Amino acid sequence: GSRLHLLESTSSTQIEAIKLAEEGAEAGTLVISDMQTNGRGRLGRNWFSPAGKGIWMSLVLRPELPVRFMPQLTLLTGVAVCSAIRKVTGVEAGLKWPNDILVNGRKVCGILLEAATEDNKVRYCIAGIGIDVNLSELDYPEDLRSIATSLKIESGTSVSRSRLIGEVMNQLEARYLQYENEGFAPILKEWEALSASIGKQVRSVTLNQVIEGTAIGLSDSGGLMVLTEEGKNSTIFSGEVEII
Ligand code: BTN
């Protein structure tokens, strides 16, 4: 089959990419849709994906990786997309752990990695990337207006979606090779350099605990290390982390 699938509309490019991966699509297969009717976000949320205004795409990856390293792949994807946004638009995008991309405190991009696994190994992984490119304030539903933004709003000009897609793919390929050759350490350093979380007060709420403190860095495995007010070190591995 072909490696690039350009769609006008679909429920979710994640679902299309999973279908292709299950049929044996090779690594690098990319599904892009002009709009999504049921875009999905992390933690069961919806992803607003209007026609013609954003980049809604899913990439098939086939890393030879134990499942426990998936968080590293997630951070790698964030570094690649954040670098691409900076390079193409000059907008000072920053990473919010684990991999939202923010500009001036508002979300401009969300990343969703979904993996199919077998015997604790990754069979394939779908990297879903949603970038708000050319939306105007009025394109957003009321509830998103204060928390989301677009590259056009932030830079004051329209941004070429095809150029940005090209740069995202270049960056992903480069980081992926770097990860294979040099391991996670260089990616971790870059993530910290592009971070909008580190040095900030953060709060993470899960079913059984609340962690609040200053984000101080990433652990070797990619968790967010937090120094609490009582002077305790905690590492957050999953869920939602608010910058407060
Ligand atoms: C998040 O919750 O921040 C992650 C959002 C991921 C959205 C992208 S858009 C392309 C791909 N297809 C989907 O349905 N979701 C991802």
UniProtKB/TrEMBL annotation:
It comes from the Bacteria. Its EC number is 6.3.4.15. This is Bifunctional ligase/repressor BirA. Residues 1-180 form the BPL/LPL catalytic domain. Belongs to the biotin--protein ligase family. Acts both as a biotin--[acetyl-CoA-carboxylase] ligase and a repressor. One of its GO terms (molecular function) is biotin--[biotin carboxyl-carrier protein] ligase activity. It catalyses: biotin + L-lysyl-[protein] + ATP = N(6)-biotinyl-L-lysyl-[protein] + AMP + diphosphate + H(+). Signal peptide: none annotated. Keywords: ATP-binding, Biotin, DNA-binding, Ligase, Nucleotide-binding, Repressor, Transcription, Transcription regulation. Biotin binds at residues 36, 40-42, 107. The gene is birA. Coiled coil: none annotated. The lineage of its organism: Bacteria, Bacillati, Bacillota, Bacilli, Bacillales. It is an enzyme of class 6 (ligase).
